[in-house]
Amino acid sequence: MTGGAPANDQxxxxxxxxxxxxxxxxxxxxxxxxxxxxxxGGSILGLFYLFAVFAGFFSxxxxxxxxxxxxxxxxxRVRIFAPGTGLVGPFVYAYRSVRDPVTLRKEYVEDTSVRFxxxxxxxxxxxxxxxxxxxxxxxxxxxxxGYLHLFGTDKLGRDMWSRNIxxxxxxxxxxxxxxxxxxxxxCFLGGLSGFxxxxxxxxxxxxxxxxxxxxxxxxxxxxxxxxxxxxxTAAIYFGITIVLSVVGWVEVARVVRGRVLASREExxxxxxxxxxxxxxxxxxxxxxxxxxxxxxxxxxxxxxxxILGETALSFLGLGxxxxxxxxxxxxxxxxxxxxxxxxxxxxIPALFVIVTVLAFNFVGDGLRDAADPYRK
Length: 376
Description:
The protein is of the alpha+beta class.
């Protein structure tokens, strides 16, 4: 009788051997890399946070400088080919203002007789790189007396490209800070509620139910309106963060409570009690690590909630206030249909918010799959 060796006796190649000997984190990373949308979302978020950290370097104009001769100017199109001359390299045309013969409204058209070539690493307005190093080098710009407005200008003639990049600093970091606060508060109170039980559990759950029963937008508006308008920008920033965290922690607390109730009778929990571990130590060192993967996914999906909350509050005039710059503050310029119809580029901050929220959701989906690498 002839035939090959049994399946169990087949040699294992190096690739399969690495798979069977991989750690939990290696398996999770391998599963996450196969989620294409998660990789795309993570790349987009990495790019956005890079812009936020080095906003001064990527900006082309001072965010507070007003160009009164270019109010509500449309975005300049980057071109490579010039009519009649062929390839000349990246450049933009200058603006030329005209009057509409019917509405008498001022409009801007391209002046094809004046070109501004784009240059890399040009000198411009001064800023502090990473808040420390004083410099005036920018990634992109034009030389001489030229100007560059990739996203156009607003009603005060301020450059929208630079303002959108600087706005990412507040809009992206407020989600991280708010989620961090709600995560700590939710884990502590949720773990205490599930582990202690009794009156402690009843009190915490009633507080959670009370907060959940209040409509979120009116609650945000009420808490934000209570912040003094004379506070500096930094104080308002942290005030808005705390306002968002007041609501955000309840969902985390309910989930942690349910997980703790399910795991407090497990063998490893009972062994920790027998070994003399305190209640807080048992929760911190044994229970919370068992739900760590789920909490990471929950945090990833909670960050867009915080970003949308800040954007909504600032859009309504109850969040960040000028001269602070966030995507919600920028959207205040697009609060009526006439502005949107005549100057649609003022809605660009909304596109940043949409892309950011989608990217976080994609990353959250990838982390959820990676948290269980053995699931097909």
